[in-house]
């Protein structure tokens, strides 16, 4: 398979996520303008952070007059999963130059990781050039529409009917991306503990329960993985 074929395969396997990314981006654009951001500021927010869940969380906290520190820490807690994604996908990009790794890191989001990791696991002997091409195909569908969707949402936010609830995009996105990936005990354990903690600490103000759940889930996954590796050794 040529790199171009891998690129088109990345596009094909990522196409379903366009149905999630576009309404997700529209939702953020709408909320950004409701919070008082200009169209340019909303686009800059998306370009700088490119992490929908963290963006929406920070924006909603700020809309409810939460301290900026809490909004930033909540966004960081949500995005800590990106560190785990990086550790998982880095071996597949070994040998690439610094610019290629920097660009890959910038576009490493939930959907690009889910699609790329699944493909790399199925084809461990895929040449590095093909892996990069496949990743680029996923980025084309998952990440590039995020920016225009944000702009369109910011421009037409006031014109959208109140009955049109785009909030479905966030839970649908995460369920569709990660439910198929819960195949190992560490993954299942992390997800279970995160859900339990999120529900148990939902009473905490300013969405702090989300931070507790994220950290608890990651710690659980790491502990279970460590114990399994020791058992195998």
Structure write-up:
With 233 residues, the protein is mainly alpha-helical. 32% of the residues are buried. It has helices at 3-34, 39-49, 52-63, 68-79, 81-89, 98-106, 110-122, 128-142, 146-156, 169-178, 185-200, 208-232. 75% of the residues lie in helices and 0% in strands. It has two domains: 3-166, no CATH class; 182-233.
Structure described in brief:
The chain has 233 residues and is an all-alpha fold. The protein has helices at 3-34, 39-49, 52-63, 68-79, 81-89, 98-106, 110-122, 128-142, 146-156, 169-178, 185-200, 208-232.
Q: Describe the largest sheet.
A: none
Question: Helix segment count?
Answer: 12
* Overall form: globular
Radius of gyration: 18 Å
Helix and strand succession?
HHHHHHHHHHHH
GO cellular component, one term: plasma membrane
Protein name: Inner membrane protein YgaZ
Family: Belongs to the AzlC family.
Subcellular location: Cell membrane
Features:
single chain; 233 residues; mainly alpha; 2 domains; 12 helices; 75% helix; globular
């Amino acid at each position: 398979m040529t790199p171009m074929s891998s690129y088109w395969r990345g596009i094909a396997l990522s196409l379903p996520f366009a149905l999630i990314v576009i309404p997700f981006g529209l939702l953020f654009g709408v909320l950004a303008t409701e919070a008082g951001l200009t169209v340019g500021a909303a686009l800059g927010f998306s370009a700088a952070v490119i992490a929908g869940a963290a963006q929406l969380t920070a924006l909603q906290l700020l809309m409810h007059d939460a301290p900026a520190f809490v909004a930033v820490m909540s966004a960081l807690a949500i995005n800590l999963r990106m560190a785990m994604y990086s550790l998982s996908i880095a071996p597949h990009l070994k040998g690439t130059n610094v610019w290629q790794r920097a660009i890959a890191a910038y576009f490493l989001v939930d959907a690009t990781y889910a699609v790329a990791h699944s493909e790399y696991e199925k084809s461990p002997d895929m040449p590095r050039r093909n892996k990069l091409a496949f990743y680029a195909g996923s980025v084309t569908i998952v990440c590039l529409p995020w920016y225009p969707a944000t702009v369109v949402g910011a421009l037409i936010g006031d014109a959208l009917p109140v009955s049109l609830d785009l909030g479905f995009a966030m839970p649908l996105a995460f369920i569709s991306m990660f439910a198929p990936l819960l195949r190992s005990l560490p993954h299942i354990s992390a997800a279970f503990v995160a859900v339990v903690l999120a529900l148990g600490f939902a009473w905490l103000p300013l969405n702090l329960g989300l931070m507790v759940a994220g950290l608890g889930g990651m710690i659980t996954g790491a502990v279970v993985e460590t114990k399994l590796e020791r058992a195998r050794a």
